[in-house]
Specification:
alpha+beta; Uridine Diphospho-n-acetylenolpyruvylglucosamine Reductase, domain 2; Uridine Diphospho-n-acetylenolpyruvylglucosamine Reductase, domain 3; Alpha-Beta Plaits; 4-stranded mixed beta sheet; 17 helices; globular; binds flavin-adenine dinucleotide
Length: 469
């Protein structure tokens, strides 16, 4: 049977809500967030329940039709974009958007629940789901689990992997893996849940996840500080960490990236007067009214580094609106970069202590090898993860990427590997980095990835062409 026959059968069984064939309805979901990949598909499946997902996957397995799972389509590596030849069907989980249960310890959310909706739901019971990121208004639980998303609070709470207590998923043969029981201890061999986290839809379709909740914040304050270089930034973080366990966010932003945000995002303003080479966003939080207020904590902890010159300047949010405004600057970087036009993006990690040196030396190496280009990193310095972007020379934008993009990215990735790092820190591999993963290995990892893929999905119907084939 062909895809056409599968669509007819599915339409017959589940109706037009579950099987969208009108291309004008499908079109918005065929291009990735950065506008880099464009796909095609004869239909977008939109199951409303785990049973419907299972039935659709069984049909796909029976008829050898490939499926591309999709949530909010905010991914950065083309993982949710179907192939351009129209050979696969999109399967959107957005209709599965129920929060099945909410308790102080755990929320069980279906795959299509939007992150911000979960934040709001947890707040109603004075709890918090701690993972957050700029795309929280569109990214879904299924996508966040499948990419093992990071975001801005990893420093204290870890990535999605440490926040998921269990996963429910439909495996490529149509069977249902139910890991939602919330067992604290379960040593029946390999963890299927953990294999599915970060699998980018290549091992199955996540339908729901049990997610760990934390106490709601009673107070927070955000400082915006300026330092001379990334090493000073990391030295500051180490000093703060030695004195408190209440630092949640620690983000680094180079001058030109802040200027880009100020130029492209309406209503933004620079937190500090004057020009500074590197900016830091530092968030301190509190979950107990008895604790020293977060503003006082930051004032106290930043006084000495300001006095001894580790920090050039700093300001602390006077209220929640200002705290939000500081975060808005940080969260708008991807949006602002989109306004500037194409650039080469590298979501990379190296050991935390090696990151300051890497940022400086890799930028210099890239700019030396590709005269006129501009390289810099921003983001989660405290996690050893920055988004290292290379912008083309101002005069030759798009043509430059076509001519030099592959070589420039290969240079960045070679430098990352030489520094003992990873070419994907939090965005995944998708179709963007598949070739680079294959090139850079190591072979032990590649062998294991291929073996796991073959064991779960021998027919190769789950998100083909992504991560590993
Ligand atoms: P999609 O983009 O729809 O899909 C992503 C991948 O997951 C694809 O491979 C897809 O096939 C697979 N998938 C989706 N749903 C399922 C499912 N139910 N079952 C199986 N596979 C599935 N990411 C970070 O980690 N940290 C950040 O700080 C961060 N900041 C961002 C800021 C902005 C402005 C934007 C636009 C993106 C940012 N991202 C960040 C990337 C993105 O938000 C995450 O990758 C997010 O996890 C994607 O969720 P989604 O629902 O949009 O997934």
């Amino acid at each position: 049977m062909t895809a056409a026959a599968l669509i007819a059968t599915a339409l017959d069984r589940f109706g037009p809500k579950a099987v969208v064939t009108d291309q004008s309805d499908i079109e918005p979901w065929l291009t990735d967030w950065r506008g880099r990949w464009h796909g095609a598909t004869p239909a977008m499946l939109q199951p409303a329940s785990t049973a419907e997902v299972a039935a659709l996957v069984s049909l796909a397995a029976q008829h050898r039709v490939a499926l591309v799972p999709q949530g909010g389509n905010s991914g950065m590596v083309g993982g949710a974009t179907p192939p351009a030849d129209g050979s696969a069907l999109l399967i959107s989980l957005r209709r599965m958007n129920a929060i099945r249960s909410l308790s102080p310890a755990t929320a069980v959310a279906e795959a299509g629940v939007i992150l911000e909706t979960l934040h709001d739901a947890a707040a109603t019971i004075q709890r918090r789901f701690t993972l957050t990121l700029g795309a929280r208004g569109s990214a879904t639980i299924g996508g966040l689990v499948s990419t093992n998303a990071g975001g801005t609070q990893v420093l204290r709470f870890g990535t999605m992997r440490s926040l998921v207590a269990g996963v429910e998923a439909v495996l490529p043969d149509g069977s249902i893996h139910d890991g939602l029981s919330g067992l604290k201890k379960d040593n029946r061999g390999y963890s299927i849940d953990q294999l599915l986290i970060g699998a980018e839809g290549t091992l199955g379709i996540i339908t729901a996840a049990a997610l760990r909740l934390s106490p709601a914040l009673t107070d927070r304050a955000v400082a915006w500080a300026a330092v001379g270089d990334p090493q000073a930034a990391l030295d500051l973080l180490r000093r703060l960490e030695a004195q408190t366990g209440r630092i949640e966010g620690f983000e680094i932003v180079p001058r030109e990236t802040l200027e880009l945000v100020l130029a492209h995002i309406p209503g933004t303003r620079a937190p500090l007067a004057g020009t500074h080479a590197w900016h830091l966003l530092i968030e301190a939080t509190s979950t107990s009214p008895g604790e020293e207020p977060a503003t006082a904590l930051l004032e106290r902890l930043l006084a000495a580094p300001l006095a001894d010159g580790l920090i050039d300047d700093a300001t602390i949010s006077a209220n929640e609106a200002q705290a939000r405004a500081f975060w808005h600057l940080r969260d708008s970087i991807s949006e602002a970069e989109r306004g500037l036009g194409p650039a080469l993006q590298h979501d990379i990690s190296v050991p935390v202590d090696a990151m300051p040196r890497f940022m400086v030396e890799a930028a210099a190496a890239v700019e030396r090898a590709f005269p006129g280009s501009h390289a810099s990193g921003f983001g989660h310095l405290g996690d050893g993860n920055v988004h290292f972007h290379v912008r083309p020379p101002a005069v030759e934008k798009a043509g430059w990427i076509a001519t030099h993009g592959t070589a420039a990215s290969a240079l960045v990735h070679d430098l990352v590997v030489a520094a003992g790092g990873s070419i994907s820190a939090e965005h995944g591999i998708g179709q963007m980095k598949k070739d680079e993963l294959a090139r850079l290995g190591p072979s032990s990892r590649l062998h294991a990835l291929h073996a796991i893929k073959a064991a779960f999905d021998p027919l190769g119907i789950m998100n083909p062409g992504k991560l590993v084939d």
